[in-house]
Design a protein that fits this description.
The chain has 222 residues and is an alpha/beta fold. The chain contains 7 helices and 5 strands. It has a domain of 144 residues: Rossmann fold (3-Layer(aba) Sandwich). Helix 2 runs parallel beside helix 7 and helix 4 packs parallel to helix 7.
């Protein structure tokens, strides 16, 4: 058993329940890597130092609340959202879509960006906001190609990135910037603005973000 030490969960759709699980697995990975001699002491120390940076980086992201609130006010009336991510950030797209639908009751779908042409691309038009995790890792150039595909069909792109270069600024309609870190920890940081956006949209819609309809903290039926 691995405890996440996240503290009491007040709302059903909580950010800390998700992010602390990622961190717990990150620490488990370091432990196993050292024990099996797959990870050097220097490399493991660097990974721990990267993790120590995360709390202050999250504080920096929280300061973008005015930017995210402005986006929420623009899109809270939308009936559908699409979330895209590649590689390690694909599950983050799923989590972003999940939180939006849980607390705002807006239909949202998370999808691997590389497979967008196998279905979701047919849904893209000027009424569909597309949230894209576009961090600078080995998938960055490909995710830019996906953004271009969305723009070519009139979709509105909300990009979450650790560094907005000229190419991304030209392609995206909106940019939310997060601090840079190891690619293994970027999913934690990318999760925060997605949760904030879901919360702000739900708030504008007037839904109960702490007790969403039909949800429960414990599953009592199979």
């Amino acid at each position: 058993m691995i405890y996440t030490h996240a503290g009491p969960e007040i709302g059903v759709a909580s950010t800390k329940a998700f992010t602390t699980q990622i961190v717990a697995l990150y620490l488990l990975m370091i432990n196993l890597g050292v024990r099996r001699s797959r990870l050097s002491q220097d490399a493991s120390k660097k990974m721990i130092l990267d993790l120590v940076m995360v709390p202050n980086q999250i504080k920096d992201i929280l300061e973008q609340k005015p930017v995210i609130d402005k986006l929420a006010k623009q899109y809270f009336h939308t009936t559908d959202f699409l979330y895209l991510g590649r590689g390690i950030n694909y599950p983050i797209a799923l989590e972003g879509a999940l939180k939006l639908k849980e607390i705002s009751y807006i239909h949202a779908e998370g999808y691997p960006a590389g497979e967008m042409k196998h279905g979701p691309i047919a849904l893209i038009d000027e009424d569909l906001p597309v949230v894209v995790v576009a961090v600078h890792d080995k998938t960055y150039e490909k995710i830019l190609g996906n953004i271009q595909e969305v723009k070519a069909r009139g979709g509105k792109v909300i990009a979450i990135t650790d560094a907005a270069d000229d190419e991304l600024r030209d392609k995206a309609d909106h940019i939310i910037t997060i601090p840079g870190n190891s690619h293994l920890l970027m999913p934690v940081l990318a999760t925060i603005p997605m949760q904030m956006l879901a919360y702000a949209i739900a708030d504008f819609k007037g839904t109960d973000v702490d007790q969403p309809r039909n949800l429960a903290k414990s599953v009592t039926v199979e």
